[in-house]
Design brief:
Layout (H helix, E strand, L loop, with lengths): L6 E7 L8 H13 L4 E7 H4 L14 H12 L2 E7 L7 H8 L9 E8 L5 H13 L3 E2 L4 E4 L16 H27 L5
Parallel strand pairs: 1-2, 1-3, 3-4, 4-5, 4-6
């Protein structure tokens, strides 16, 4: 597939907590995505992005870290948010990161990979779908849910073969994300999206 035909997917690691498991989950999912010939993956770690916690007011200049990440998000055709579930929700730094941007999310698909206790992050995903809908993004119905994630990964962070159903879910999510990303990219090219 030609370089210009490949879809650009930003995989966002939503946890910034010390001792976080997010990079392990993101690494597993990103490795699966990179095996596909139709995707170009940009791994966005919110720890490395260094976004300020306090949002600026309208008309104020954007901090450098916010402007730098805006370029990467704007270049993406699709997003995958990797998030833990804390207290039936998602981490505050992820919400702040989402709120820094608006046009960058519009008319682009968003998939979710969540991990948590028994719910596997589904409560966090439900809330994120509402937020991204408000931002005129297109949240996918299907997601990857990793209940009791500590049982799914080996001590070295590798993915055990016993978790074949999660691998199947990841493949399905990537297939649907690619479909929506291509359809929406073509639609944005034909006519600008106006919220």
């Amino acid at each position: 597939m030609a370089e210009h035909e490949r879809l650009r997917v930003a995989v966002i690691v939503g946890s910034t907590r010390n001792g976080r498991f997010g990079p392990t989950v993101a690494g597993w999912f990103t490795a699966r995505a990179r095996r596909r010939g139709d995707l170009e993956v940009d791994l966005v770690d919110l720890v490395e992005a260094g976004l300020p916690q306090t949002l600026t007011d309208e008309g104020e200049p954007l901090p450098g870290a916010v402007a730098d990440l805006a370029v990467r998000l704007a270049a993406a055709d699709a997003f995958v948010v990797v998030t833990p579930e804390y207290n039936r929700s998602f981490p505050a730094p992820l919400k702040t990161a989402i709120d820094w941007y608006y046009e960058e999310w519009q008319a682009k698909p968003v998939a979710f990979v969540a991990y948590g206790r028994e719910s596997g992050g589904l409560h966090a995903i439900d809330q994120l779908r509402q937020i991204f809908t408000e931002l005129h993004a297109v949240p996918l119905r299907d997601a990857v849910s990793l209940p009791r994630y500590w049982n799914l990964f080996a001590a070295d962070g590798t993915w055990p073969k016993a978790a074949a159903d999660c691998n199947t879910a990841a493949t399905a999510v990537l297939d649907r994300l690619s479909w929506w990303a291509r359809a929406l990219r073509d639609a944005r090219a034909a006519r600008p999206y106006v919220p």
